[in-house]
Amino acid sequence: xxRGYGGGNSPQQIKATxxxxxxxxxxxxxxxxxxxxxxxxAVALMDPQTVAQIHAMEANFGKTWLQGKVTAIDGTKIxxxxxxxxxxxxxxxxxxxxxRKRRDPVTLADIQVGDTVRIDGAVxxxxxxxxSVNVGGMMGGGESPSVPRNAPPQ
Length: 154
What we know:
Elements: E1 3-6, E2 9-13, E3 24-32, E4 37-46, H1 48-59, E5 65-74, E6 77-82, E7 88-101, E8 104-105, E9 116-124, E10 127-135
Parallel strand pairs: 7-10
Antiparallel strand pairs: 1-2, 3-4, 5-6, 5-9, 6-7, 7-8, 9-10
């Protein structure tokens, strides 16, 4: 069985009997889409503090940050399909927006349809205004964190 994690604590070995109804787990393994099953290689029990942080992050999606695949660029407007909701979102860049690809500075012209971006900013007068656009997902080009879907409230 996997390890519990989160909250800054070191991972601890757990048993299947440690997992209770209502707990949130992350499963890594091989997916069989036809059978709708996952052959688990690792199961991690998430602590309530980490689950609360993820819920807070999800609640701010579209308000302070966006992430997804770029579907169009029109002038200073970037349209993407949201990673959390699979819905279209638009962000506008202005003279204060910074652009990065991994650790390297880039320009809006360097961003292409199909790129995955993480955009931080804020909604002003109904428009999401980007303060930073990071190609490749997270700051520094890291991968997007796994966010559990339909996790029960803690």
